[in-house]
Amino acid sequence: MEMLLTDLEHAVMLIIGMVWQVGWSLVLGFAISALLQTLVSKQGMQKALGRNGPKEIILATLAGAASSSCSYASAAVSRTLFKRGAALVPSLAFLFASTNLVIELGVVLLLLMGWQFMVGEWIGGVVLIIILAVLVKLTYPKKLVEEARTFPEAGGHNHDHGGMAEAPGSVWQKLGRRDTWVHASHSFVMDWQMLWKDIVLGFVIAGVLGAFVPDGVWQFLFVKGANPWIQVPANALLGPIVAMLSFVCSIGNVPLAAILWGSGVSFGGVLAFLFADLIVLPLLDVYRRTYGWKMAAYIGGVFYATMVLAALIMDLAFNGLGWIPARNPHAAAAMEHFSVNYTFFLNILFGLVAVAAVILAKRNPMRMAPRHCCGHSAAKAKAAEPVHAHHHH
Q1: What is the pLDDT, as a whole number, of residue 386?
Q2: What is the pLDDT at residue 376?
Q3: Is 261 helix (H, G, I), strand (E, B) or coil?
Q4: Cα–Cα dist 391/393, whole Å
Q5: How does it sit in the membrane (predicted)?
Q6: Of the candidates 268, 263, 247, which has an alpha carbon nearest to the alpha carbon of residue 210?
Q7: Contact, 190 vs 372, CB < 8 A?
Q8: Domain spans of the chain, in order of start
């Protein structure tokens, strides 16, 4: 009993420590994301993404990188693009970009795991999109795509992910307008509403696994000590499967990734785990309800193959460059260390930024359709709920 209480205390301290280490960076990332969503017009996005060409794929990638990092929200936006006429590859490229190339994810990786993982995630995100484009081109299921585009969804309604009507003027002029900041504050609050459960659950799962699962279990599962020719491919194949079963959100799984890395999982295996936020079981179910089960199976298969290949390429490249970071077997213990340092002051500063955004959003209720899906649980449970223009956030 005493042992259980000690482990529970360890898990709680680990959870609090991880939240403390990355709290400010999450606020910073969401603030930048909210401003980009407000300043970058989505008008004409569908027209611009109507082909599977390089230009359209690059545009979709940039749009994804500028959007929210929530995999459920990204799936809803991608679905809207696709159903309104965007080609398949740009629609899926948007998904990969919005969950692998976003600022807040990079900052959290930098803080918890080092610059190599941040760079690996970002370069890996681009590699993912290139591999995806090639695989889809080689296996393009024309009939499935046509069926998926007109697949009858529950309720038969579509979300509208359009933001503010396009305001005239330069970025600097827009930044000088109160409306811009009001809209950004709503985007900030809605992103948090969609994501907070995932993020908290991610920290809780990482804390519990970090405290209760001995390193030996991860080492056995990921064949630590085996010949690299066996371990690296095995880890790349297994990483996404572990993520599928334990995964929460694209940011929520970083703490567990840090623990896996400290336990001896290969660099590529950890990256494969991080990449796999788009094939978790609840999201595969969203694809099934949105596009039909055949298209969902196709997307799941192509995504899994893409993630494994990208992880192997990144592992080889980073080993070749000598960029594999040193392991920190005490990653979990380091997260429990508190002191008055830059983290302390940054948490206070960005805590105030978050409070200011919430107050601004509350004082100025929106009088237009929200730009995101209408809440995280809605994105999970009802991929096609109507959004009414008179809803206030």
Answers
A1: 35
A2: 39
A3: helix
A4: 7
A5: Multi-pass membrane protein
A6: 263
A7: yes
A8: 18-381
**Closest alpha carbon to 122 in 250, 279, 238, 304:** 250
pLDDT at 168: 66
End-to-end CA distance of the chain: 46
CA angle 208, 377, 124 (to 5 degrees): 65
Report the C-alpha gap between 94 and 213 in whole angstroms.
Answer: 35
Please name the residues in contact with 309: beta carbons below 8 A apart, sequence gap of 6 or more: 131
Residue 151 DSSP class? P
Contact 39, 174 (CB under 8 A): yes
Phi and psi dihedrals of 244, rounded to 5?
-55, -40
> Could you list the mean pLDDT of each consecutive 10-residue stretch along the chain, which spans 393 residues?
87 86 79 76 69 91 79 77 87 92 86 92 96 96 92 55 56 86 90 77 80 87 90 94 74 82 92 91 85 95 97 97 88 72 89 96 73 38 36 38
Tell me the two tokens of residue 13. Answer: 């301290």
Which H helix or E strand runs over 200?
A: helix 178-212
pLDDT at 328: 80
158: its two tokens: 């579509």
Q: What share of the chain is helix, strand, coil (3-state, %, to 5)?
A: 75, 0, 25
Query: Contact at 8 Å (CB) between 334 and 328?
Result: yes
pTM value is 0.74
CA-based nearest residue to 74, from 389, 379, 296: 379
Give how far the C-alpha of residue 102 lies from the chain's centroid of Cα atoms, to the nearest Å: 8
pLDDT of res. 160:
41
Predicted local confidence at residue 240, as pLDDT = 93
Check residue 44 and report its DSSP letter. T
